[in-house]
Structures are given as C-alpha cells and as structure tokens.
Here is the input.
Amino acid sequence: MENSFLSKNLIKVTIISVLLLLVGVASCTESKDTNNKTIKEKEAFEFGVWITANDKKTNEEYAAEFSKYKDAGIDEVLINTGTDPVLLQRITPVATKAGLKVHAWIMTMNRPGDKVALQHPEWYAVSREGKSCFDTRPYVGYYQWLCPNREESRNHILGLVEGLAKVEGIESVHLDYIRFSDIFLPIGLLPKYDLVQETEMAEYDFCYCDVCIEKFQQEHHKNPLESANTSIDMEWKQFRLNSVKNIVNDAYKIVHKHNKRLTAAVFPYPEMADHMVRQRWDKWNIDEVYPMIYHGFYNEEIDWIGFATKQGVEDVKDKGIGVNTGIYMPPFKSAEEVKQAIMFAKDNGAKGVTFFDGPALTPEYLKAIKETKESLK
Here is the structure.
C-alpha cells in the first residue's frame, strides 16, 4: 500500500512539474517575443520632412504629395500652418490616411507678422543697444522676437501651442525658434551678411527689456546693463537659458494635458546651442528633439553630421529624449551623399532623420531615401 501510494504521488508530482515547465517555457517565449518586439520598435529608424502648408492647396493635391513621401519611405511630416488650427485640421486627416504621422510645427519665440503681437510693441525682445525687435530686426526682416519673460507674451505663445495641441490626429506640437535671436550666426552664413562676429555684439544680444532686467535684479541684485562684460556674466546667461527652458516646460505640460507630445527643432548640440542662441535643450522637459545639423551652414563636411549627432545623443542618453537628425538638402551634390548623411546620423545614435524641406526632395533624393530605408530592414 505504501509503495503504491508513493508511486501515484510520484506520477502526480511529475505531471505537475511538466505542466509548470511548459507554462514557464510559454511564459519565457511570450516574454522573449515581447522583448523582441520592443527591441524592434526601438530600432525602427524613421524618416521625416518639414513642409510649410498652403491654404490654397486642395486636399487632392496634398494627398498626392503625401503619397509621394510615403512611397519614398517617409514616415512623418512636420507641418507649418502658421498656427492656423483650421488648416491643420483639414490637412492632418489627409496625411494620416496616407500613412504619415503629423507634427504641428510652430515658430515659437520668433513671431514674424503675428497680428496679435504687433498690437503690443512692449512684448518684443530688446537688444543690449536698447532697440526693440518690434521695429529694428536683427539680420533679417522676419526676425521679430518676443520676450520670454513678459507674462503677456509668454501667455500668447503658450495659447498658440495649446490651440495646436487640441487638433485631433497630430503626434506632437513641434517648437521651432524656441530660443533667443542668434548671438552668433553659423560661420557659413556670415559672408551673406558681410559680418565678422568675434565677440557678442550689442545689436544681436537679447533680451534687455525692462521686465527681464527687473526680474534678473530681483534674483541676483545687479543690472546686466552695468556689467563690464555680459558675455562672461554666467548668472545673466543662465537667466536667459532658464527663460527659454521655462516656456518649454510649460508647453510640455499643456500638450501632455491634451495627450500629445512635445518636440522641437533645435541647434546642432546643446553646448553649441548654448553658445550661439541661448538654448540648452538637454535641460528641457521634452519628448524628442530634431537638431538642425546643417553641415553647409558651418562649412563642415558630411561626416560632421555624425559628430554633431553623437554629441547630442550623448548629452540626453539618460533623459529619455529622442534625437532625430535634421538634414538640410541644398548642400548635397548627389544621392550617394544623402545616403552617407543618413548613415552618419544612424550610426551615431539618432532615432531618425528629417529633411528640410519637402520641395528640396527631388525624385533622385527620394529614391535614395527609399533605398536606404529598405537596406535597414
């Protein structure tokens, strides 16, 4: 009896063990499949394009344009509608039907022709020379920068962001010109303006309006206009970096409230952006950045795209911020160079590349994008 009882129990234990083993294998397989899926999703390399919308274009014309992009391997379009949510609402379903993700691209601190802002001259950034962007534009006529510290101008900008964030079907609100005006231009652009910039020149140094100076004095008990050398006044520099960061962080809360993401077009990598335009994007609350690594602007070779990409990726690797390398098409001389640029970005950690802009993507370049994407599968 005792041996029979033991035998029966041994059989039961064996059966249970086998069942547990099978469940474990199934669980491991499921986990492995899930992990592989996650890895595959993380490794997906995406292609995007910046475009400016035209309300005169029909939906049929947009459908043809979006189909052309999709057929070439483009995954997303970043659309500038001039903060017009109605136009964005019309175009977005056309793009998503074509299989493209849509980002609402907005000019943020630089607001050329903003009819609301133009009614408030006091909203505009003021140079160290004491001249306002309302009527004295640095470099070009469309540079009309708003002050990031004045409550009214901040609220206006954030209101525009929220208007776009409410549009159904978009992936993100995409901030452009989210910075101060260029204290230094890219070296390749200086001859165009007959400029030599070896120091921080007063006419290009912003913002010295009454509100900025008062706020800074409250925090640091000194007036930047009385500084012997503002370029080495770290508190004054940090104050302006934080002014931009605060707008980004507020925008982040707004767009996430509407279940959208926040992205931005930024200068090539954080240290460079800090130096050139008071922009330190590795310190922001943001989901993804699209650094404009326009090698031609800096008289650099194509491999500089890899270098600058790596700098940015390294700076945000522990912050969960995705980096999509922005590529400017005019300097390229061949499809082979476009392929090289894509691979320099990918090999240095970018999650994708985005091209500026749609009209610059010739059939030859679209073919190069498609071939490169297919080679990455």
Notes: Residues 2-43 form the longest helix (42 residues). The mean pLDDT is 91. DSSP finds ten helices and eight strands in the chain.
